[in-house]
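Data follows
____________
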Amino acid sequence: MMMKYLWAAFAAASAYAQEIASPLPPEQMIAPEDKSVLDSQAKEIFREWDKVAVPVGQSVVALVAGNAQVALGTVVGKGKVLTKLSDLQKERRPVMLVDSSGRVYDAKVLFALPEHDLLMMDVPGLPAPPIDLDSYVQAKEGDVIAAVSPTGHVSDFGVVSVAQRSLRADDQPYLGIVSDPRWDGEGVMIGGVEAGSGAHRSGLTAGDVLMKLNGKPVDGMYSIRAAMVGVRPGETVPVEVRRRNQVIEGKLLTGPRPRVMKFPQKRLDMMNSMGNRMSLKRDEFPLVIQSDMTLFPERAGCPVIDVNGKFVGLALSRAGRTETYILPSWICRELVEGVLPQVQQYRAGRGENIPEAQPVDDSYDARRLEENRRKVEDKMSRQGLVPKVY
């Protein structure tokens, strides 16, 4: 019975996730005559995604505490699951792992990776197939990607807005320039140069028009940041500027980002979230891909795929209104092929034996789950919400 209730809950959650959330009533967002057309188009989009997402969904599990989903996890090896660290760390209730078929397991913690906010769990009795780490892809800016739920449905999708980069302040290069917002021509006009910065030492001055940086054309501060992805403080990059009618090519020395007074965090969080729920950890990741998908915090830990169903990475954090961070797939592979064997070898050398986790009896706590399911349905009904199955 428990398996049936859990599976029904996941299916409903996935279907409800495929609704577009908005603080405005539907009648204020869209004309009634257009709603049916958009609903039809949305169904078609999700049907196309499901064709490549269903096989991947078998490798997705849910971490549940007291009937509430805390996070998702991705099966990366036989009985090995990568999931979120901070979301499970704060949880005081017993956490169960539920696979895509609704079976419940008592997972064991193997090791933590705080820098990535990840936890590797050991579930030797878990029959779920590992995700294919050998056919991963490295996402590029503009690629369309999607997050996969345990039901095999796509819960969220968006585009890659920034290629892989470090979010650590010490890893981000600093140029020392300010753009002139009044400029509407080609390139980026420099409105000011900080004294002593790399730009100042390279001879850049206010009024110069930055045309290329690190070999890439630039047309705004966003493209400047994109051009500096992968560059570390202290490195030199080629630069091309236009000064009056003369084009000048040279080298620009980057420096470390200066320590500045931070904007009040509570106010910043309020402005950034705009009413959306954010993940607990959402900064200082060593390497991430950024997307505009609207991932809810409890869906972090799931795999992210491209339009061909290839593994792009692991959903790490909802960091802002249009910011979701993803751990690149190649790092996931390195964790499985590099870190995991070392941990297993170390524990084997100490004679540690990890007990095999087994499925929990189907009748376990089924009555409480049924009561909770009815409460959720009643609450949705009072709010006029009806999940749509795409």
Q: What stands out?
A: The longest strand covers residues 154-165. The chain has nine helices and 21 strands. The chain has a mean pLDDT of 80. The two ends are 25 Å apart (CA to CA).
